[in-house]
């Protein structure tokens, strides 16, 4: 089996929804189903922060969300936890700079699984690419309240800098992204946007996900 093609990876990154039980207004299952009906292109199960589930409850929620993604034909990514990803037969894993290196994940999961790595500068980006990452998560682009240990807010300049340094790897922006500020992230060179609260906390989850899709699609069109 070979690695995912980068153009296919770019398509998956367009509207990349991330969530865990602590982020949801409705139940996680209702939230994910509505986001999926709104056309999200990729999902990441990220059970983290105060009140996050652990043990059997974590596994059960993961199985429930994995089943929804299988049903809706949306690839299912697990944040941080390689063993949970294996237990849930996830399509991939996303790791930060303080998690297992992508090289180790690749050896454990094999070529056909998706590996994403958080990067904040060209050096971290280059290392992730050398380690076999399929995409980078770059941010926080704007202030966020969904990650209590987020690195410094960098604006869209961080994406611009990575692209100007010649990096062509599939890349998604993340951090405080809303319908109102998503387009600059695309204009700076991201292949898509990654969102927790703007979708999970939305009044109308399906319509909000759909609106992100329209913005990304329109933002991609040449002027
Ligand atoms: C996981 C993560 N990594 C950088 S910012 C962030 C949280 C993004 O959440 P939100 O979209 O609600 O700002
Ligand atoms: C920290 C993160 C950065 N980027 C992505 C896509 N997911 C994450 N969990
Ligand atoms: Mg992490």
From TrEMBL:
EC code(s) of this entry: 2.5.1.3
Gene3D superfamilies in the record: Aldolase class I
Sites where the protein binds Mg(2+): 80, 99
Family: Belongs to the thiamine-phosphate synthase family.
HAMAP family: TMP_synthase
InterPro entries: Aldolase_TIM, ThiamineP_synth_sf, ThiamineP_synth_TenI, TMP_synthase
Protein name: Thiamine-phosphate synthase
Binding, 4-amino-2-methyl-5-(diphosphooxymethyl)pyrimidine: 44-48, 79, 118, 147
Cofactor note: Binds 1 Mg(2+) ion per subunit.
Role noted for this protein: Condenses 4-methyl-5-(beta-hydroxyethyl)thiazole monophosphate (THZ-P) and 2-methyl-4-amino-5-hydroxymethyl pyrimidine pyrophosphate (HMP-PP) to form thiamine monophosphate (TMP).
Binding site for 2-[(2R,5Z)-2-carboxy-4-methylthiazol-5(2H)-ylidene]ethyl phosphate: 144-146, 176, 196-197
Catalytic reaction annotation: 2-(2-carboxy-4-methylthiazol-5-yl)ethyl phosphate + 4-amino-2-methyl-5-(diphosphooxymethyl)pyrimidine + 2 H(+) = thiamine phosphate + CO2 + diphosphate; 4-methyl-5-(2-phosphooxyethyl)-thiazole + 4-amino-2-methyl-5-(diphosphooxymethyl)pyrimidine + H(+) = thiamine phosphate + diphosphate; 2-[(2R,5Z)-2-carboxy-4-methylthiazol-5(2H)-ylidene]ethyl phosphate + 4-amino-2-methyl-5-(diphosphooxymethyl)pyrimidine + 2 H(+) = thiamine phosphate + CO2 + diphosphate
Recorded metabolic or biological pathway in which this protein acts: Cofactor biosynthesis; thiamine diphosphate biosynthesis; thiamine phosphate from 4-amino-2-methyl-5-diphosphomethylpyrimidine and 4-methyl-5-(2-phosphoethyl)-thiazole: step 1/1
Broadest EC class assigned to this enzyme: transferase
NCBIfam families in UniProt: thiE
Domain Thiamine phosphate synthase/TenI: 15-199
Keyword terms of this UniProt record: Magnesium, Metal-binding, Thiamine biosynthesis, Transferase
Cofactors demanded by this protein: Mg(2+)
Gene Ontology MF term list: thiamine-phosphate diphosphorylase activity
């Amino acid at each position: 089996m070979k690695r995912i093609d980068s153009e296919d990876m770019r398509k998956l990154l367009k509207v990349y929804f991330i969530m865990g039980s602590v982020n949801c207004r409705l139940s996680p299952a209702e939230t994910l189903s509505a986001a999926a009906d709104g056309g999200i292109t990729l999902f990441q199960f990220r059970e983290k922060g105060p009140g996050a589930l652990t043990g059997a409850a974590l596994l059960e929620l993961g199985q429930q969300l994995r089943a929804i993604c299988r049903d809706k034909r949306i690839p299912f990514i697990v944040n941080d936890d390689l063993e949970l990803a294996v237990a849930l037969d996830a399509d991939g894993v996303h790791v930060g700079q303080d998690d297992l290196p992508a090289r180790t994940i690749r050896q454990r999961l094999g070529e056909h699984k998706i590996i994403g790595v958080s990067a904040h500068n060209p050096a971290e980006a280059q290392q992730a690419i050398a380690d076999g990452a399929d995409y980078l998560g770059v941010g926080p682009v704007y202030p966020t309240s969904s990650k209590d240990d987020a690195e410094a807010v960098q604006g869209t300049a961080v994406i611009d800098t990575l692209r100007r340094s010649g990096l062509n790897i599939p890349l998604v922006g993340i951090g405080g992204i809303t319908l109102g500020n998503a387009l600059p992230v695309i204009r700076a060179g991201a292949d898509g946007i990654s969102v927790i609260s703007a979708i999970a906390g939305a009044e109308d989850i399906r319509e909000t996900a759909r609106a992100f899709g329209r913005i990304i699609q329109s933002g991609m069109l040449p002027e």
